[in-house]
Amino acid sequence: MTDALREKLVNAGRVLALEGQGDYVAGHVSVRLPDDPRHFLMKPAGIGLEEMTAGNIITVDIEGRRVAGSMPRHNEVFIHSEVLRARPDVNAVVHTHPIHAVAFSSLGKPLVAVGNDASLFAAGLPVFDETTDLIIDQARGKAVARSLADRPALLLRNHGIVAAAASIEEAVWVALKLEKACQTQLLAEAAGGPKLVVKADDLGKKAGRSNRPDLHNNVFNYLVRRWRCVCCGERVETPEVTAYESWREKRS
Q1: Which residues does 139 contact at the CB level (< 8 Å), separation at least 6?
Q2: What's the CA gap between 67 and 31, in Å, rounded?
Q3: pLDDT for the residue 205
Q4: What CA–CA distances, in Å, run from 142 to 20, 116, 149?
Q5: Per-domain residue ranges for the chain?
Q6: Residues 164-191, mean pLDDT to the nearest whole number
Q7: What pLDDT does 238 receive?
């Protein structure tokens, strides 16, 4: 099981980088070990998100100490350890610096449902503003976890995002959706500010339809296939792709 989890973490880094959430060697993603919930696998420091391998991933305990692996841990490990400590329902955490989310965090405005992506955050998007510095100790990590509370994500003002979820696939989904929601609102703000937003009674319906485990998995697997195609020139065959191509040939 651990080998499969390592491979999934590797793919999460690739997917995040592919979608523009890489920041050179900054940014990190983690996943809790299912048979040892006080330990988690994490991207090491010094490499890009897309450079993770099954062999260079490190293991960290709930106090933020590296307990296995040869590469150094990130200074901001406490984002992961303290969110995982505070949220038993969370098994994966993403921290990245996507440019639209960082820019949006500087506006001091609430995220509103300009489009479908923001419906995931209809209950409110917390903003951590105790500091714009790095989260490099347990006290700051605990403060981030308190600010996150029971929400799927928060903005670190002038810094980045934290996404937390029950699975790697969902945490990646939340991170990607938050960046798109911020980008969409920035476009509306640049055009004079959003005048029309998703109606309140539609928000819950949209959130339910767009936040499902099957969707998290399908999108994650699609992005992994796209990574392999774009970066490796590999054409990945899946039953879904084969069925679609067969249908398309019959239609043509």
Answers
A1: none
A2: 15
A3: 83
A4: 28, 31, 10
A5: 2-210
A6: 98
A7: 58
User: For the segment 202-233, what is each residue's pLDDT rounded down to a tens digit?
Assistant: 888 887 787 899 999 999 999 999 999 988 77
Question: Quick check: helix, strand or coil at residue 117?
Answer: helix
Kind plus residue range of the DSSP H or E element containing 160: strand 160-165
Sign of the alpha-carbon dihedral angle for 32, 38, 41, 44: positive
What phi and psi, each to the nearest 5 degrees, are found at residue 27?
90, 145
Instruction: Say how far apart CA 240 and CA 135 lie, in whole Å.
Output: 42
What pLDDT, on the 0 to 100 scale, is given for residue 45?
Answer: 98
E-assigned strand segments in 5-98? 28-33, 36-42, 58-61, 66-68, 92-96
Q: Tokens 């696939």 appear where?
A: 169
- Give the right CATH number for 2-210 from 3.40.225.10, 3.10.20.30, 3.40.50.2300, 3.40.30.10: 3.40.225.10
